[in-house]
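Table S5 (text form). Sequence records supplied for joint modeling of the three-component complex.
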Amino acid sequence: MSLVGIIANPSSGKDIRRLVSDATGLDNHHKANIVRRVLRGLAAISTFAQAGPAAISHVVLMPEPAGIGHTATTGLDFPFSVAPMAMPYFGCAEDSLEAARRLADDQADVIVVLGGDGTHRLVAKACGNIPLVPISTGTNNVWPRQNEGTLAGMAAALIATGLVPPDTATRRTRRLDILRDGEPFDTALVDVAACDVPVPGARAIWDVNRIRQLVLALAHPGVLGLSSIGGSLPPPTGSERCGLALDIGDGGDTVLAPIAPGLVLPVPVRSFRWLEPGETVAITDQPGTLALDGERETIVGRDDQLAVRLEADGPTMVDVPATLELAAGAGCFIMPTATTA
Amino acid sequence: MSERELTYRAAINEALQLEMRRDESVFIMGEDIAGAPGRDDPEMVDAWGGVMKVTEGLVREFGPNRVRDTPITESAFVGAGVGAAATGMRPVVELMFIGFMGVTLDQIFNQAAKMRYMFGGKAKIPLVIRTTIGAGFRAAAQHSDATYSTFVHFPGLKVVAPSTPHDAKGLLIAAIRDDDPVIFCENKVLYDTSGPVPEGDYTIPLNSAGHPREGSDVTIVAISRMVNLSLDAAERLSAEGIEADVIDLRCLSPWDENAILESIEKTGRLVVVDEDTPRCSVASDVAALAATRAIGFLDAAVQIITPPHTPVPFSPPLEDYYVPDVDSIIAAVKATL
Amino acid sequence: MELDRDRLLWLYERMRLIRAFENRLHDDFAAGVIPGFCHLYAGEEAVAVGVCAHLGDDDFITSTHRGHGHCIAKGVPVDEMMAEIRGKVTGCCKGKGGSMHIADVDRGMLGANGIVGGGPPLACGAGLMASIRGTRQATACFFGDGGSNQGTTAESLNLASVWKLPVVFVCENNRYAETTSTDYSIGGPDIAGRGIAFGMPGIVVDGQDVFAVYEAAGEAFRRARDGEGPTLLECQTYRYFGHFEGDEKKYRTRDEEGHFRERDCLEGFRKTVVAGELLSAAELDGIDEASEAAVVKAVEFAEQSPLPEPAECLDDVYVSY
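The corresponding structure-token record, covering 999 residues in total, follows.
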């Protein structure tokens, strides 16, 4: 008996970066279609593979005003129950957080998430160790991979049923804890930017001239967004890329970084240092706002003592291609003889 | 004044051209009023010049910014005409057939017609909607109506329906210069008719009637193409010694009540000829005017000649039956004698 | 674009004035002194104000039946508005329009509109004027989630996109068209996505946060004025009162109302600017008092104003007839 949660954020991929960059939008009908494919993938594995006692019994969806779940499930029968989660919902970011919290309480076996870095961050804040199957439908998609819905659903089923042991096809990602007076109060998955914009406003931060400090859990040149600023630097000698703290401003090298879709900008990096898990970076730029995973969240007052700490035990991500490869290797997809005729 | 002749079509085209030259705020828009919008190929410029070729050539002089082909989206472009008028332009919008008012009526009667009133007189909507009316093209029910009475019914709109090239030009120039929304009804059967049209600009008051024939025996009040049929009928009646006084009700709202009343006073007999359907029509309005204001002068019951209360049919014998003809006008006149 | 002190004060002052105005109408309607219908804007203030902050007197807005907030944000004097709503001859429409048709064309306010979906074609017209004349004037077109289902809105999105008109379409998604929720009425299921379908950016904006609206609208108007064409902003918001005054709101839960009241735009503004040390609480308190006083004064003006003479019914149909 296993439980799969699906969190599809109706607001992902719809922020102001469509106006300030070449980011495009993903309408909710498209998201409903992805959820439908996820469900079909889950159903296929549930029906044809020998899932045994860990067979998927329930799939629950985060409710939201756009009715993505309803659109996705209309007219379909599934070998498991499919229902919206019984929770209040208001079409706000808090919905994703609340859904993740409830799935953690209900000990879901896996959560499929449709969203960008921002959505995954909210889910990660509350989901504990439940493996996440990410499907990128956001603007910045550094953390979530571009997984196809059907395959993501199949992988989610393989992990949930234990057909593929979770520890073989998932990996622990890093996270950044935001500390006030030394106590963590918020989390980011990819990047934390201290900027001099005074209000959270439209959330996204795209004007690199407003950024003073940047702390990255992930710095890879193959991604879009603020973490690409770190990703544009050569990796540390003799070791792999890890966390990174940067001061943005004149006085050092200027790197070319793809900040948002279609927006490749020169960014002056005054200084930087590579971080290992457990290291803390003090936020010295005040006042302004802290942007978490590309979205302004927290107002930084003149007297606030804020810091960012890199942690090794972030959320667990399911590697969809690896999961499917392991399943194929184990013969999970070979159907019983009787049904192949 | 020159004695040159122009077609009804060319007279309208000339009015548009003169007003666009005179006033930068005048622009025209509608479906395929130039044709092939967005194509760079010079061979394709002005591909149609309007479905009835009324606007032909204007895009070459004024360019696509002021001679604006629209998508087929009557609610949006008629409403855009209203919005542009409210913000200082003088749009002339072409609604290809009057039947298409069905898809844009809100923008005409709830927005254009009511804005000035709702806003306490603090807005003006100098908008002209040019549209075509009239049966005779075998174009069936949705492309042949003459339902101008619908617009006459709405306070806030002015409605005109010229029957001659001369009036078409003068009334259109007046309509464009007028500060209220005007529905300008062009009878498509008249486009190829010709008549004397003065050079240069001139206007005809939007509350005036034409008086193309004087007579003392019977008043015929007619609208648009029905004026032409009435004049033909009057010629035949004259041969029989009956002289008809023909009033061209070219302005429907406002209208020249006095022209009608004075004629009735003179003749004592009234025949109304209208191509619109009979109920709640301009024809019944004229009859009501006679009944309320001229009953003492009437020597006979008012005769009303209109199509039957049906949509316009397609098949030639059906459509021919539908449209009033000269014989029916003559019969109506004789019924009053 | 920069949120300087004056701009911050203006944002709060306008939002607060709308709130005070609407709360007073809510009370006055219950007291039976307001003729006709009244659709109140309380709760949605951040949208009108965040959008209109980018507009001057020579820019335009089209509005809805819920138009008081748009009027105040666009600078229509509240004295004249209050007089109009009470049917007084000193009203901005001389008592001929009432709550649903308040307009001030000289200030670019092209009218509240009793027809859902009536405004978008008009907004295209104002945009077309600017486009033909080559000015940098822009137009904001307010409509609701209900209006997003009207054909006129779809046609206008398309026409504005085809002609790259300087129009910003602002959908105030307050989740209910009369009693009908967006869960039921919006196919797609996505209003912002309809912008994308017509070839313009369609984005979702937190309509409870004036800063979010301000920033998004700022970029949208920049695009409009620079000739980059229209934008659709789906501002997610909530009306505190019913569809009209007297509506018992049986179609929504008190929990839901509570949730949105907790995310009130005025409270949110206060928290943000105080935390960010941008304005002081005392300054905001001063605006609160001034707003209440302005509304009291507006009511006095309206009460002391004469009713129109009955024969004024006949005026203002035409410029000339």
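Note: The domain at 2-173+315-340 of chain A is CATH 3.40.50.10330 (Rossmann fold).
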